[in-house]
Amino acid sequence: MTDRFAISPFGGKGMARAQFLVNEQVRRARKALNEHATEAQSSSEHTVDKWQLLRAVTEARLVLGLSDRTIVVLEALASFTTERQLDPAGDLVVFPSNAELSLRARGMAPATLRRHLAALVKAGLILRRDSANGKRYARRSEEGQIEEAFGFDLAPLVMRAAEIEAHAAEARRLARAVRALRSEITIHLRDIAAIVEAAAEEGRGRSFAPYVERLAALSGRLGRNTDWETLKARRDALLALRNDVEKAYLEGLSEADLEAREAGHMVNENINMSANGTQNERHIHNSNPESQFETYQEKVEAGPMPPDLETKSAVESDHDTASGQRGGRRKPEAEGSGQKPPVGFETVASACPQMRDYAPNGLSDWRDLMKAAETVRSMLGVSPDAWAEARAEMGDINAAITIAAMLERAEVIRSPGGYLRRLTERANSGTFSVKPMLNALISARQKAVLAEK
């Protein structure tokens, strides 16, 4: 097959200028390789590992303008080449049928396949080599060698291997920089919050109120795909705030305090900047460096509690139940169930019917509810720390009931993790019970039924 063979698309579609240029670049590059390289050099120096190249394409997908599904189609095309090492001077035309290409693309629909193939052509990574009737096939010699092939040419992909690897390296460098920025933001947030808290414990909270407002404005949750410029701006703002907070804190210390600390003496034994609970308790290390940052953000972003799940500050008839939720003063109803709930199981199942969707074996008892709550907790985005605190304060069953009630109103709860932490704090102070939450849900459902009638 000649280098200038089959470059126009089948079906009367016009050929874009970019496609013609890509074909010309491939032709010239192959000619240069054949003229200036020996056969040994062509097979060793210029070959490209197709799987490493596809990995680089994945890393550089944003620069190349490719979606993950488009890369799946490219991987499927590359899987039809018999060799792992691809020679840019060789024949790289693959000619799979639509059915086989769909199977290797994880069952992708034909219309979707055509769309992603067009995206690969537009990106200049493959070329169409359409036959006269648009079919994909190969003509072989009497010895079984391919003489002419019609399908998709992967030569542009291989020719751009160096460029793609450069983009991938830059993407990796940027990813490292983003991770470093996120880590720095987390540390600044944690340290600023600790300094402000220490000042409040010393009775200087009023003078630090402006810094608290600035900290709240800079504590919004950052998305997974937040760009580097936005992260850098957040880091710079936090760094400026930290400098102001540290300066204000030091200005509130007397010279005697500073001299005493420089001499290695404690000014006040009640001021403890250590992360340990007490001097004699063993420190519990959290392997997740983002957990403290997430906890602070959850509290900031939790927002007002939904009106139909709002619990009273002093629970009326259930105060004895709420006060009995802490410290394990009540006998568990069943093994591993935690404190006895103030309502029956049927009441919970009626008020929170969505929990049945997360119980594979059905929702028949408290044990099934607790298993389903573990799944729903993860789905709502509640961190393991917040879940563990809720179970410790409320008891296993009451915590599971709380998760079930949150699932019913998930669309109005902005931050489920922060919401659960607020309820846990109320349970700690003895002002929370699950019964008003369930009553509110039942009442809302009854009103909806009456409105439909």
Automatic annotation (TrEMBL):
InterPro entries on file: ArsR-like_HTH, RepABC_RepC, RepC_C, RepC_N, WH_DNA-bd_sf
Composition bias type Polar residues, residue spans: 286-295
CDD domains: HTH_ARSR (cd00090)
One Pfam family from the record: RP-C_C
Any one Gene Ontology BP term: regulation of DNA-templated transcription
Entry superkingdom: Bacteria
Domain Plasmid replication protein C C-terminal per the UniProt entry, residue ranges: 346-443
Ranges for region Disordered: 279-345
Positions of the Plasmid replication protein C N-terminal domain: 30-199
Basic and acidic residues bias spans: 309-321
NCBIfam families: PRK13824.1, RepABC_RepC
Protein name, UniProt field: Replication initiation protein RepC
Source organism per UniProt: Nitratireductor aquibiodomus
Organism lineage string: Bacteria, Pseudomonadati, Pseudomonadota, Alphaproteobacteria, Hyphomicrobiales
